[in-house]
Write a structure and sequence with these properties.
Number of strands of chain B: 2
Number of helices of chain B: 14
Largest sheet of chain A: 2 strands, antiparallel
Order of helices and strands of chain A: HHHHEEHHHHEEEEEHEHHHEEHHH
Strand content of chain B: under 5%
Largest interface: A-B, 68 and 66 residues
Radius of gyration of chain B: 21 Å
Oligomer: heterodimer
Largest sheet of chain B: 2 strands, antiparallel
Number of helices of chain A: 15
Helix content of chain B: over 70%
Strand order of the largest sheet of chain A: 1-2
Helix content of chain A: over 70%
Radius of gyration of chain A: 23 Å
Distance between the termini of chain B: 72 Å
Structural class of chain B: mainly alpha
Amino acid sequence: MSDLLAARSQMAVSLAFHIIFAVVGIGMPVLMVIAERRWQKTGDAIHLDLAKRWSKGTAILFAVGAVSGTVLSFELGLLWPGFMELAGGIIGMPFSLEGFAFFTEAIFLGIYLYGWDRISPRSHLWAGVAVAVSGAASGIFVVTANSWMNSPAGFELVDGKIVNIDPIAAMLNPMAFQQTLHMTLAAYTATGFAVAGIHAFLLLFDRENAFHRRALSAALILGVPAAVLQPISGDISARSVAAWQPVKLAAMEAHFETTARAPLTIGGFPDMETGEVRYAIKIPYGLSLLAFHDPNAVVRGLEEFPREDWPNVPIVHIAFQIMVALGTYLALLSLWIAWRALRRKDLCSSRWLLRAIALAAPMGFIAIEAGWTVTEVGRQPWIIQGVMRTADAVTPMPGLVVPFLLFTLLYCFLAVIVAWLLYRQIIRSPKSSDWSRVYRASPAHHA
Amino acid sequence: MPEIGLPDVLAAILALSLNAYVLFGGADFGGGVWDLLASGPRRGRQREVIAHAIGPIWEANHVWLILAIVLTFTCFPSVYARLGTVLHIPLTLMLVGIVLRGSAFTFRTYDSQHDATQRRWGRIFASASVITPVLLGVSIGAVASGRVGSALKGTFSDQYISPWLTPFALSVGLLTLTLFAFLAAVFLTLETKDRDLCEDFRRRALWCGVAVFFASALVLLLSGDAAPLVRAGLTRSQWALPLHLATGVSAIAVLAALWHRRYRLARLAVGLQVSLIFWGWPLAQYPFLLPPDFTIAGTAAPDSTLRLTLIVLAVGGAILLPSLWYLFQVFKTTPADPQRPAAQP
């Protein structure tokens, strides 16, 4: 394994691991706030129990997210000193803002988790709101820095030297809005459906369980609107990729030849020798329509770009197919849920719907991993699109396979433990035979 | 003395955020040290007090480090690149320590309360709390010795190991660990209403205060050959004598306050003492960030970046400082003794 590949793999493992916890840190506080607010409004103690259980799960996930995020902020320098030396002064600002947002999130999460008996219910709810808002803000700032790598702005390159740095223009780079919108919606969709999926699965065996019913409803309030909006945001994102990273778009679509009225390629495996996509479904005019909203638009194919500037086409294409397929499933499922909810039908009376929601539990997270694969692998061989190659950014230190293996092992170990701890939280959830006894005994029930 | 410019202001803020990390994050690591060294008949209760003291605040305290990192790469990008290159190995190991400390602590809180499980997570949490400060100190020592900032050449070992594997850097690692443990022991005296437990921490703090003296002396002794810039700063500059006097006075104040069981006073004085010891380092190597080649002015990002960073710091600080004050108000004005729930009917 070359040092460059080891460094890229370590970064990939670290990002893939961290993003799950980062996303949970954005989504879960919203669910806790919904449950706590419902408890304060109705006095129904099950909502309180829900908020407390969710906050325990969030505490575990947030801690792992905080430490794995620290690893990333160091890895930028440990693995990519060339990149940081060039880019630090340009994109440091969103990172500084993220630092403060994360600080606020950590402070109020501490207050939220440990302050149940120490502050008033009103302050406690507001602490939860502060966690939710700062969590979303911190995600937005970090993605802004990433979108700068895709559509660099706010500086001039004169003889290989960076001059005229404008950090605000860098932060408001051309793809910032599209990417942050897409990621924020993805975080809410993934968290909402992961939680909804787990409780829908449990409801399949215990349909009257009030605990799971309330959990399902809160989780869907978060997940359904986000999943419905996500295809629109995806369309906006795809058009910005077409405009700023045509090679990436061509790789996503495995679009080899430049053509007008380009078809949309669904599925299939790109054959790099012949430039054909085997076993794919082609929808006429589809790609021209999606990328430029014009059926006759010319879409540039990979052939227009030098071979050394191509990303790994099969990986990017397949990852993109996975993301779109899962996103489509979640959007259609959400429409089904919304339709039933609008007609005021009990969601739990349809076993097929519960099964479909249970099946969706991992999908948002898989879609996020696939989407980030598209973003990051699709930008290769550049670390900053058109400005700096990844190979020129990597640390000169040899033997990078060692830290790569070290962090991979560490993260596998943590993943197993976290999964086990969350499973413990779930298997301990109250059965419907218990909860009536538990909650009737609680004084809050009479309040 | 040269004129103070915008880069100097940001370097000072960078040092301030590291100072805050040492005081707050450091005390959390120190708590882990005392978890490892818990002993005597109240061993279990000592660990409970430590866990309740750091539980609500360690994540927030940890962000001071992230703030320092972000300020480094935003305002002094080439310094960050050099740090990440030369100190790759100790920083990577420190990260492993940070990851294991935080996650093991959380896992212990939320995993089964069986003794064996609790002990297993406790051991990981406590050992990581010992190793991480040492590696942080070693990295600081390597910077101060001037071996990170000089040109990269030679074998793998010359470039990536010998700059930090020196007696001087290791002595700074030891001093860091001792300071963190000292801070924690003093802070912990205020975290319990139980008089015996309080005495346990008071005794530890007194011994540790003496250990700090010896560890500092060792660092100063070894600095002669290894870190001439620091040595010169700490012995010959015009601020050296006032700094040593102030440090000495605050050190005596901590020990006297502990002796007379004036714990709130001891907490204030120990914060002052540790900060003064910390500031000896940046003051001694001013105007260098990484001596001998990387100066503050020479490595600073353009003024447009620095000015904006300053604005971000002002706005962020306006949100952050009241929030932090609130956090400590909620959890640190009364002892964190675990509230034992009344027996269930």
